[in-house]
Design a protein that fits this description.
mainly alpha, 2 helices, 68 residues
């Protein structure tokens, strides 16, 4: 039995908020260890987001295959 759409949306919002918190925490730890590493991480995030936006604009999102 599948959950109602509203419940799935609430779960998606909760999961994205948790993920955002984890990313913020990791970025704070990164800047504490090295400002250069922090800048490199921001650059990688920027490039990953740019690639995702390009895929979305082209109506094609590639997902890495499972390794299990």
């Amino acid at each position: 039995m599948s959950a109602p759409p509203g419940v799935k949306q609430q779960q998606a919002v909760r999961i994205s908020e948790q993920l955002a918190f984890i990313i913020k925490t990791l970025l704070v730890k990164r800047i504490d260890s090295s400002f250069y590493a922090f800048k490199q991480t921001l650059h990688r995030y920027h490039e990953a987001n740019r690639a995702m936006l390009k895929m979305l604009a082209n109506d094609r999102v590639f997902i890495a295959p499972s390794t299990t």
